[in-house]
Amino acid sequence: MLALPSGLPEGWEEVERRHRHWCEGNGVRPLWRTPGLDLVESAYLTAFPSLERSRARRAAVGSALLRRIALFHTVSAVYRVQCWVDGDSWKIDARTAHPRARWHDQLLQQLCHPRWGLPVNVSHRFCRCAEPYAPYQWGHTCSFYFDGHNTGVDDTLYLRVHASPEGRDFDRQIETLRQTGASEDWMARAFPRCAIQHHDQHYQAERLR
After folding, report:
1. Distance CA 124, CA 163 (A)
2. What pairs with residue 82 in β-bridges?
3. Half-sphere exposure of residue 114, counting CA atoms within 13 Å on the CB side?
4. Of 54, 101, 168, 173, which one is least surrounded by beta carbons within 10 A?
5. Is the pLDDT of residue 167 over 60?
6. Radius of gyration of the chain (CA)
7. Position 204 pLDDT exceeds 90
8. Three-state SS letters, the chain
């Protein structure tokens, strides 16, 4: 998913065209407009048929995640989400600006909701947030492993919620999110009030120079 900041002189088509030219000029074949697998990919999957089954499972989970991408900002308080494939499963790293990994239970509930969630269950949970004497600190990480209750495949999804202070300076993240049109209500939930105040004061000081 690509978000273009407001005020960018180039539109999506120009950005895509420039990136395609860069790929071609550097010996890389851009395949995002190719309707199917090329000859090299087809030969590889024919030689290793288990990879095709694995790819199909990953594609199904990835497609379901994309259709539910709004959950990561409507029911959680994370400001950055990264996702990648590792083996047969998807790995998600979510970063929060709070000293402890908060709001993740709401996200887990919606991700597994029988009405609109993914066909998965939380199979393993490594989290101390619910403990009465859990440390209130930066660097706190909660990890969750999911399995597919329709497929019987373990660890189809892995989610890590990491309380990342980013040097306790979120000016760059706040500025980027505002450029992409993030709502103020969500910003107030995702970032501590002091972080937004620090950004606004810094921004005003820069404008007065």
Report:
1. 20
2. 93
3. 1
4. 168
5. no
6. 20
7. no
8. CCCCCCCCCCCHHHHHHHHHHHHHHCCCCCCCCCCCCCHHHHHHHHHCHHHHHHHHHHHHHHHHHHHCCCHHHHCCCEEEEEEEEECCEEEEEEEECCCCCCCHHHHHHHHCCCCCCCCEEEEEEECCCCCCCCCCCCCCEEEEEEEECCCCCCCCEEEEEEECCHHHCCHHHHHHHHHCCCCHHHHHHHCCHHHHHHHHHHHHHHHHC
If phi > 0 it is left, if psi is from -120 to 50 it is alpha, else beta; for residue 91 that is beta
Sign (positive or negative) of CA dihedral 190, 193, 194, 200: positive
Query: How does the average pLDDT of the chain come out, rounded?
Result: 80
Cβ atoms of 136 and 126 within 8 Å: the answer is: no
Topology of the domain comprising 41-168: Beta Polymerase; domain 2 (3.30.460)
- Structural domain spans, the chain: 41-168, 169-209
Give the separation between CA 109 and CA 144, rounded to whole angstroms. Answer: 12
